[in-house]
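Sequence and structure are no longer studied apart. To make this concrete, we show below a single chain and its fold as tokens.
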Amino acid sequence: MIKYLSAFLLLIAAVMGIGSTYGQTSLAPLPTSTNKFVVIAHRGNHVNVPENSLASYEEAIKSGADYAEIDLRTSKDGILMIHHDGTVDRMTNGTGDVKAKTWAELSQLQLKSPKAGDATVYRIPTFREVLKLCKNRINIYLDFKDADVAETSKQIREEGMEKQIVVYLNKVPYYKQWRSVAPQIPLMTSLLADVKNSQQLKFFLGQVKVEVLDNIGEQDMVQTAQQEGVAVWLDVQSPSEGKEAWDSALTKGVQGVQTDNPEALVNYLKANGWRDGVAKTAVNVPKKPAYQTLKDVAYGYAENNENTFDAYIPENHTPETKVIVYIHGGSWSRGDKSEFPKQLIDELVGEKRYILVSMNYRLVKGDKNRFPAQIEDVKKVIAFLSTQSKRYRFNGNEFALMGGSAGAHLAMLYAYAHDPYKQVKTVVNLWGPTDLTDKSVRADGSDANNTVIRFLGEADPKAKICVDASPLQHLTKETGVPTISFHGMEDPLVNVSQAENLHKKLQSLGILSQLELYPNEKHGMSASAAVDVFEKMVKWLEKQYPVVK
């Protein structure tokens, strides 16, 4: 099966600047299987009968497989039917594209049998026929090639198969459609070519919620997926498939494999005592970091949860435990506290033992909630945390502020202009604007200029409110704090000069500054760049805002 999902990066490239649509949602449960190690019959068991035929699915059931893999397409007149190729040439006595033929035409074609001399007539099945055949007999691995999500989900519900299906995604738009139409159905995808190590995998899984991955080759990455609650099923089917390929997959500690020889594989697993669990050579999955999560804690009285925060608190915290406050992005008019990546929560809270607070604030809506509402909300959060520190046993006298895009702007503005007690010890600036008075980077009619005008209610960059809202204009030797900045050099919304000018001024004032620039990145970071950002961010915090052991 050819997998091609590199474009999934589009779903995660703007993490923390815009936020992930499905960040921090729970995973859907996988179908129940009799065996812990699942065997997936690739296009059914087609050793002696045609692939993707009703007969192949019957043979898959007889073989003892846990799943039958099927390929879903749509006829010209909208009938959901099963066929792997985009054309009927290879597998039938006809020619032409599947989508160019009506179901009446497709249903008359005969599938070619792999067995010489087989006179049996095999037909292309409809999706509904397969659902009826498999119900309560075998689970379905649905390779969703070309079909309507709503209609597919409807037929699954009507046949009572919601708890027996995993959907493999072939196209980027299908991800959001399936999560919207049928969030209870587990999803599967191949791993991006860009994701090459465990840290990158952890980032990916923190942003795109899938229940199964299918092409992880490294054992440490298999462990990472399992630690995130994601199953790994490998494809082992090939002309030379056999014991060597099976053993290679088993030793990685995966939970299942897709095979062209399900009966032989099931017999092999049974003979070695591996049918109800992974191979003895598989390693144990490490324990996940432990912390407590408090959702929607109110710090003010704004509507629609805009004055709430989520807190992530490590086990056995003490009065010396330090707090990091994260402020989300979204042009001051959208976004949510849930955008903070789970893998960073695990690292900062579960491993490094900081308390993390991710806050909402009032968003600009037309003429409502314009600046300075947002910075007033940051003040409220800091004051609230300071007053609650003794009661809940954490350090309420020191804070690290971190933000993405608009949130980074607010973090810097609070630290440089609104921190009378000098509680902020460091700032992490993720592609945030630093000087709203700089007209050279907000040309008339540009997104950057329109965003600033909407935020301030003022078009003149020389106006007092622009100065008041610009972190760089408040930065002095007395107000500055150690700051690390990350920025894409091709950022079309917040020009890279904003970070460069901040860095220069901090250095000129003798205040510690680190600037990390990414030549090919825009507003937000791709998966590979984000891993580098996270690594440097954590190292910076450990040095500039160390945890008390």
Remarks:
- Residues 48 and 115 are 5 Å apart (CA to CA).
- The two ends are 51 Å apart (CA to CA).
- Residues 1-24, 279-283 have pLDDT under 50 and may be disordered.
- The longest strand covers residues 67-74.
